[in-house]
Structure formats: structure tokens, C-alpha cells
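Work package 3, deliverable 3.1, input record:
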Amino acid sequence: MIDSVGRAAETPQEPQPYAELGMKDDEYQRVRDILGRRPTSSELAIYSVMWSEHCSYKSSKVHLRQFGTKAPKSEALLVGMGENAGVVDIGDGWAATFKIESHNHPSYVEPHQGAATGVGGIVRDIMSMGARPVAVMDSLRFGAADAPDTRRVLPGVVEGISSYGNCLGLPNIGGEVVFDPCYIGNPLVNALCVGLLRKDQIKLATAPGPGNQVVLFGALTGPDGIGGASVLASATFEDESQAKRPSVQVGDPFMEKLLIECCLELFAADVVVGIQDLGAAGVACATTELAAKGTGGMDVRLDLVPLRDPRLRPEEILMSESQERMMAVVTPADIPAFMEICRKWDIPATVIGEVTDTGRLVMTWHGETIVDIEPGTAADEGPVYQRPYAEPAGQHALNADDPSRLARPGDLGATLLRLLGSPNLASKEWVTSQYDRYVRGNTVLAQPADAGVLRIGEVMPGASETVRGIALATDGNGRYARLDPYCGAQLALAESYRNVAVTGARPLAVTNCLNFGSPEDPEVMWQFAEAVRGLADACRALGVPVTGGNVSFYNQTGSAAINPTPVVGVLGVLDDVRRRVPHGFTGPDERVLLLGETTAEFGGSEWAHVEHGHLGGLPPRFQPEVERALATVLTEAAARGLLTGSHDLSDGGLAVALAESCLAHGVGATVSLPPGDDPFVALFSESASRALVTVRPESFDAFAALCGKHEVPCTTLGTTGGAALSIPGVLDIPVETLRTTHEGTLPALMA
Amino acid sequence: MSAARVGVVTFPGTLDDQDAARAVRHAGAEPVPLWHADTDLRGVDAVFLPGGFSYGDYLRCGAISRFAPLMGELVPAARAGLPVLGTCNGFQILCEAHLLPGALVKNAGLHYICRDQRLRIESTATAWTSAYTRGQEVVIPIKHGEGRYVADAETLAALESGGRVVVRYLGNPNGSLNDIAGVSNEAGNVVGLMPHPEHALEDLTGGPGTDGLGFFTSLLKTMVNA
């Protein structure tokens, strides 16, 4: 029997399974108040998914507002938060759109498909802005590297990203792989996509113009991930009944590739008024959001949705998360041209509705009205919570447990090798060699470079000529954020910002993926509030606005939450991509320079983690003005062609940065540490705002003058060349030894 | 003489067509887009089948593409001497279409591999390798999950004795028999290889160096001499 609006009015007392759909008593009551009757089962489906944490940001909204209220002035920002993805002006008539999003819970349940559909989802977000997706990156976190479950989850996640991303034809140009016991049972899979478009091509998720047609196109709708949005993203696994556990969606990258090419042709033909991808909450979300942002009304015939499984009920059609689907608003006159392009790419496309000026979203099922709501009440007027928060009970003791009490090593060479071979610092080649980094032929730098860099001039035919390039990096450090979420979030931004700057790019804008435990735990909520406050303050101080992002809560097993893990992506622009600075030491007889200042900062460091299993004290200081000056020096020096190589200093400090620089092109170096400094501190401290660069001897004076002008400390460490990393009196390690140590770890763990 | 026209075929799921067209341009020829559903080779002087996952490669790689309408035109033209290069998925399609012997199966390590691969050019007697010197070592990226070249003993012997092994891996990445990275037909006009010369054209992008450009300049040399 169909639960129509008429029937709902006649049976006000019929019990409804709102609690099973993740709705609280007062939320359900609010729906009844809004409608003036009980919701139909289809309406309940819509409200339950639209008001879920995942879709409504009800716990995070009050904090996320700071990204807007504290946003720095930016002339580059074309589309800010609230759309499918932010858009920034990168010059010469071009714009870039980028976003990072989590697919954590599905990737634990079914690593391959969970990660694959994470890539697919973020790519469609970028497509729905009118852009051609041009690259992806992945920020991944797993439990301890030697934990049995990591051997299940990691290869599955990597294979999922590899099979989906490679088949889609998007280069994978960077990201992170981090291990920490806190992520066992709660792996983090954060996928980033970047797209390019002409500034005048931006599309928005809106349905204006009564009479315009609503077209559903792409894959057929099946029983995939029904309830996924509200259930998978809004509750912990532990107390989950088998019946409630939904199927994870299955991806078809071939369909997605066709969808990309089809959409680009639709955009080029100018036959799209508004467009929205179908992600979490599928048709329910796309129709309500499009209608809410458009003229306000939409009539939909739900029985016209083409199905893979004809038994699906209207509620299931609304909730289905079948992948590779899009919804477009098209004028009646353009429908034939629209359909013709879809036919060329073998993409099923069906008109399922029409834009109206009634202010109502009305859905029918074989003639019976099953949904009749004001779309804004579902899309924009969901509950907003001021969740209580409180500093964790052990926070003070954690911060008081300073790493200065830890025993320091005698043999610094042996320490370096142990760090270099530890899972977090070891080569990630085992992972990244499974990703195509070259497809489309615009990859200038990719992993293990600090940031991925792309040439943009040849991306789309017909666009104005340009020699510009873009750079992208993601970073996060859960240990820093555990010690101090305010500062930890700032340091994540600082490192990502620095990674972009060391390639010579000017950092422009930020996206973020905020991975936390349960917002219903006041201690987790404190971490979240502090991290958002820190990130918003740091964005203002560094002059880079947040353009969008994603919050992932409930990353916890029982009462044990993950370390708070804000992952921050930064996009930068190179005015001339041919001036990009390569990674590490690129040739012999060049001067090795250390930029920035080092103090003894070991709280949350790799050294404390690897050598002592210690987490305590405070993370390194974040000094925005110092970070900004460093970036200015790096980008100016790159533009003037003064730098021959670069690498940022981060996890593992100077020692690891020197070793990685040697490994980049197999070029050794002989260096000495600044006189008077404690060699251990100089080599392993993780003070922020530092970088290594190389210059030709004849460029040194000009570069030193540039550093002086911006008050960036510049110390000559030595010279590149030879087949070893040598610090006379401290350590002397052949590059080959560094290499076998660095490259052996992951293959051995995954064998 | 007007620029040589080289057809670049796009199947649904082809990924490296933009790279292929760029490679043709870099060599000084004119790329001509060819659509899988067309039955017209548009009078091109040569054809490049680029890499990708045509039709998703959910079946055996290239098994569906060989039946594309365009292939109905391409196969007889190739047998009649039209220079044809297939890289990666293009190589797989040429094998499925029986323009080249053997088959490409899942890598020995079972993983997809993307890396800058050292190779040796074994034959310069083809339309696509005359710009190299025999025995020349080059670095060209590979990126594939199913690139392990296999053939029966008789076929392998014929390929070896006939000088039809065009490119060999130095440090076999995928378990290919006889380290074979690429082969040609008897006439030498049809060449298939797993590595991607179109990703080794420029210092700025792709793999290190410009070692791949020779495949495309070879073609022009062949055509001038023809």
C-alpha cells in the first residue's frame, strides 16, 4: 500500500519508524509541526536523511560559521562555502574548484568499494560546478601498520582508489598515508578532487524557471546503500543490528568516465540551467536542494525514475545511493539537444519532473501524491544543535607530560634510519605506484613531492592560453591535534600551505575534512570546537579562505574516539608553471640552505612516537607571520628562478628532510649543523615554518638578500653531491642505505 | 608536403587520447580524432590507439572494443599496410583483434603498477621505432594492471627469430614472457606496447625526459621515405 498524503492525513496516529531512521523524538515532532500532519513514509525518508548529521551539519554548523565570519578578504574567491565545492580565480580567465570529503565508515565496512565510491562522489561534486575534474588526491589513515586489520583495510582501500581513479582517467598526484593505533576500526579515507573551468562557466545547484525540466541521468537506480547517509554516517557500528546495517554502494568508474565526458559536452553546448550530483540521500537530497535554491517548487513523478530493480519502493528510490547519477535542470527547448548528447555517450537520461512556482516539492507515485512539502524546510531548516563541550579530563596531565624527560639518543645516524624506516615516514611507493599519476599529460609534480602540480594550459580546448599551473597539498597531524586541537588544526593548515609554497606556488584557498569522534561526547565536541576556531583563525592570519569541506563525526569505537584529525587541503597557483621548484636535491655542487628557526619542540613528534611511543606535552608553535614570510620568500625566489630544489620540514625534522631530499634524485650531500646547536635538536625537532632549499652558488647572494628583506633566517648547511648523506662528526650514511631502509618497510608489511 | 594526419581513436573509456593527440602534435603531425562508432578512417595516414579502460574492461581487456564499427575499417587497412600504434589498452585491443599475436594478462604481482620503466629498443625496423638505434636504452612510464605479455612457445620463437620483439623491459615489472614490452606484426607497420611513450614527451610533465618522442618522429620518417 502506498502511504499517500491523503492517507497520512487520515491516519495521524499510525506509528512511524523515525527512531530507526536516526531521528530524535523532538525532530520527528518538528516535522509534524511543519507539515501540520504526520509525514508520509516518503516524506519521513526525506526529512530523516536531510536532517541527518551527514547532510545537515546540525552539530557542527554553529562552529563552522567562523569560516565565514573570520574569512580573510580574498579577491580570488568566486564561490564560497555552501555550494557543492568552492571556486577560486586562478587568473587568465581560469578558475579552479576543489574539495575534500570523507568516506571513512564505508571504507571500514568494505574497504575496496568504500574507498572507490569516495573517489566517485567527490569527482561528481567537482563536475557539478561545471568543471572538468583534473586530478585526485587521497589522505588516508589506518591503525597500527602491523595490526592484522590494517592488512585487510589498507590493501582494499588502495585497490579501490586505484581501480576507480585509474579507470576514470584522473591522475592521482598526492596525499598522505598515516598509521596510528587510534584509527584501528576507524580508518580515515579523505578523497580530494580538483577541477578546472573557465570563469564564465560556473554552474550552480539551482532549479529556477517554472516549466524547466528535471532530468535524472547516469546509472540506473538500485537498492544501493539505502539509508547509508543517515545510518552509516550517524551511528556507531557496535550496537548496530544486522537488519540496520546497509549495503555499501558499488561503484562503476566506466559509467563515471562517460558521465564526465557527457557533462562536459552538455556544459559546452550550454544546455544546462542547474545541476546537482546525487550523493548521500540520492534523489531525496538532489530534488530538495535544487528546489530550495531555485524558484522554490518542483513536481516529480517518482515512478519515472529508471530502476535497476523494479521492486524498489518510493521510499527506497528516494534514499538509494546508487552511484554515477546526476540531476540537471534543462529548458524544454534544450531537451532534444540534451538527450542527443546523452545518447552519444550511452548515458540513460529521463525527464522525471518539472520546476514550478508553487513553493512546494510535490512527488507522485502512479498518480498518488506521496510528498508535498516546502523544500526549504528539509534542505535548510533542519535542527541546529549547540552541543555541550568540555575540555577532556586528562588534557592538562597530557600537556604536562613534556617530552623533555625522554632519553635522547647517542647515535643520531641510527636514530635517523629507525625513523626513516618507520611506517609513517617510510616510502609510500607501495601505495602510490598503484595510482596512475600521468594520465592526461599535465602532471608536473606528483608524490613524493611536497605538493602535486599540474599544468593547466592544455586541459580544455578553446580556453585562453596560459602558462599557469596549480599546486595542491593535504596535511593533518592527529597527534598534534590531540595535544592541542586549536594549534593542531593551525599546524595542519601551515604544513599544507608550506607544501604548496615550496613548489613555488602562491597559496590561495583552503578545503578541509574534519574527522572526529562522537559530537555527543562533550570532550570530543571540545576538540572539534577548538580545531574549527584554530583553523578559522589561521586561515585569516595566512590570508587563505576556506571554500568548503566536510565534517565526519562518529569516528569512534565504543567510547574511544580517534585523535581529532582535521585534514587541510591548500590550493596554490604558479604564474608560470615552468618555474616550479622540483623536489629535493636535483644535482651536485649546489648550496643547501635551511630556512627558518629551530627550537627544541618534540611534543607529538615522530621521534617521541617512534622511539618512545610517547604522546605528551605541546605541539610546535604556529607563528602565522613567520609562515607567511617563508611562503613569500619561496614563491618570489621560484618566480625569479633562484631555486634548484626544495623540501619542507615537518615530521621527523631536518634529519628526515635531508634524507628525503637525497632520495628524491639519488643525490647525496655534505652538511654541517649550525654551530652551537645541539645536534639532536637541530636534526629531529619539528619546529614549524621551516624549509630546505638548494641554490646554485651564483644565486646565493640574491637569495640571501631576499631572505633578509623578509626577515626569514637563512643558514648555509653545506653542498649537494656524492653518494652519501654526510654530517661530519654526526652521521655518514650512503644514499643506497637510506633507500633500502626507506623503501623496504611497506612492502614487507603488506607482503 | 602537408603535415601527416594521424588518427587518434576514442572508445568509451579511452583515457590517454588527449596525450596521444599531444604526442602527434609534438612530432609535427596533425592529430585527427576518430570515434569508435564511426565507420570512416577520414583518410588518415596512420592510427594511434591510446590507453584507457575501453568499455570499463570489465570483460577481458579490449575484448569488446575489437568489435567497434571503426575496427571493421581499421583491421583491413592495417593488414594493407596502414601504420598503427597501440599503447597499453591499445596494445590489448590489437591483440584481441588478431593484428598482433599473444595476449596481455594480469601482472604477476597482481597489482596495478605506475612507474618510470627502463626499456631497450630491440627493433628499429618498424614504422614506429626507426628514429631509435637498436639496443638504445630509454625510460618511459608504464601504468597497467594487465600487462603481462604471454604467447605460446611457437609464437615467442617466431617473434624472436623474426625480429618482432620491438621493446624489452630492463627489470621485468609484470612477469611478461621474454621480458617483452612490445611487439610488431610481420610487416612492421603495426606495433603494440604496454609503455606509454606519449607520457615521455617533455621535461615539464610526465615521466623523466623525452625518450618517448621517437615513436612519433619515427612515423614521420617512415612516411617521408615511403
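The CA atoms of residues 112 and 145 of chain B lie 4 Å apart.
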